[in-house]
Automatic annotation (TrEMBL):
A Pfam family annotated for this UniProt entry: Cytochrome_CBB3
Record keywords: Heme, Iron, Metal-binding, Signal
PTM entry text: Binds 1 heme c group covalently per subunit.
TM spans (from-to): none
Signal sequence, renumbered to the chain: 1-26
InterPro entries named in the record: Cyt_c-like_dom (IPR009056), Cyt_c-like_dom_sf (IPR036909), Cyt_cL (IPR009153)
Gene Ontology CC, one term: periplasmic space
The protein, known as: Cytochrome c, class I
Organism superkingdom: Bacteria
Domain called Cytochrome c: residue spans: 66-146
């Protein structure tokens, strides 16, 4: 009887210390879309949304209209010169359809890796130019272009109206 108890308690002690030693969450590894090199996502003051994204690979701003509006404003200054006013394509390819040069961009993790780490030629890394939180906002607007074009256009209109 006593022996059995001892075994049970040592197992629970083992479990308890095991859990205590486990890191709270393990972050995903982000790699350059072309280079495959590990991207350094450290060194910024992370928002809870950025932390969530780096753990799940899912953009928590997807579908969030406020985030899309902010995302479009960032896009219009940081990206539209090359990708076009509504991401219809210019020097850089269109980002408003389901065709991707790099199929990894179909997933949010891949899209982040392309924007944060850059791709070929003029598509330089946005690391250091935009915060990771800003990149997630831009991504929310880009995703809406294909998944919810009406909302994406409303985000554009909200900005244009304010500035006209
Ligand atoms: C100086 C011009 C320039 C700017 C600024 C720029 N891009 Fe690009 N972008 C390009 C070019 C050129 C390519 C094609 C590169 C390639 O195919 O590797 C590209 C490719 C991409 C791709 C991959 C598309 C695909 O079909 O797989 C994404 C996503 C992207 N850009 C997003 C952005 C976002 C978001 C911004 C703003 C934060 C931005 N770019 C800013 C020129 C630019």
């Amino acid at each position: 009887m006593f022996k059995k108890l001892a075994v049970v308690s040592s197992i629970s002690l083992l479990l308890a210390t095991g859990f205590a030693l486990m890191p709270a969450q393990a972050e995903l590894e982000f790699r350059g879309t072309i280079s495959g090199d590990i991207l350094d996502t450290s060194g910024e003051e992370d928002t809870p949304q950025v932390l969530e994204f780096r753990n799940t690979g899912q953009n928590p701003y997807n579908g969030d209209f406020e985030a899309m509006k902010k995302g479009y404003v960032i896009f219009s200054t940081a990206c539209s010169g090359c990708h076009g006013h509504l991401a219809e394509g210019k020097l850089g390819p269109a980002l408003n359809d389901d065709y991707w040069t790099y199929p990894t961009n179909l997933e949010d993790k891949g899209l982040f890796e392309t924007i944060f780490g850059g791709a070929a030629g003029m598509m330089g890394p946005q690391q250091g130019l935009l915060t990771q939180d800003e990149i997630l906002h831009v991504m929310a607007w880009i995703r809406a272009l294909e998944k919810d074009p009406k909302k994406a256009q409303e985000a554009v209109d909200a900005f244009e109206k304010k500035n006209s």
